[in-house]
Amino acid sequence: MHYTEDCRDRALSLISERLLRAVDEDEVIRLRRRNYLHLASLLSEKAGFTMLYGTLPPAVCPLGLPLVCDDRDALYKSLLRRGVASEVWWPGFDKSVDWSRFPEARFLKNHVLLLPVHQGLQEKDMEYMAHSMAPLRP
């Protein structure tokens, strides 16, 4: 979670470099955007969470769909039981920071959950995720 100087001069491995050369960047962006937008539409106006961002700007390649959750940890555990590997985003608090000075950051660290939208997923996977969240809504 924390940067260390010993990571500064590390290079990409040859295997990783070859794998990256085979990736179609435009296709990755297209698929991630498709998944993000589809999942966002399925989750719009649902109780228990809101989307961190209202829109997905053009050319942005999303890592995931971030939600601000009323009870992030319960949602995370419930999704995990259903086979959905969401991420507790930005976990932990660096002890060298006075977090009392940053209430908004503290709130986000305690409430943001990231849903996967990577290119290996399909629209049916977005539908399963949205369906898996249904029992958590009032």
Descriptive notes:
With 138 residues, this protein is an alpha+beta fold. It has one domain: Aspartate Aminotransferase, domain 1. 41% of the residues lie in helices and 12% in strands. The protein has five helices and four strands; from the N terminus they run H-H-E-E-H-E-H-E-H. Helix 2 packs parallel to helix 5. The model has no long low-confidence stretch (mean pLDDT 88).
Helix amount, in percent?
Answer: 40-55%
Tell me, rounded to a whole number, the average pLDDT. 88
Strand order of the largest sheet: 1-2-4-3
Q: What gross morphology would you assign?
A: globular
How would you classify the quaternary structure?
A: single chain
Structural class category:
alpha+beta
Strand content: 5-15%
What is the CATH level 1 assignment?
Answer: Alpha Beta
> How many angstroms does the end-to-end distance come to?
35 Å
User: Can you count the beta strands?
Assistant: 4
The gyration radius over C-alpha positions equals 17 Å
| Main beta sheet strand tally, sense and closure | 4 strands, antiparallel
CATH architecture: Alpha-Beta Complex
The ordered string of helix (H) and strand (E) elements is HHEEHEHEH
Number of helices: 5
| CATH-defined superfamily | Aspartate Aminotransferase, domain 1
Number of domains: 1
Remind me, CATH topology? Aspartate Aminotransferase, domain 1
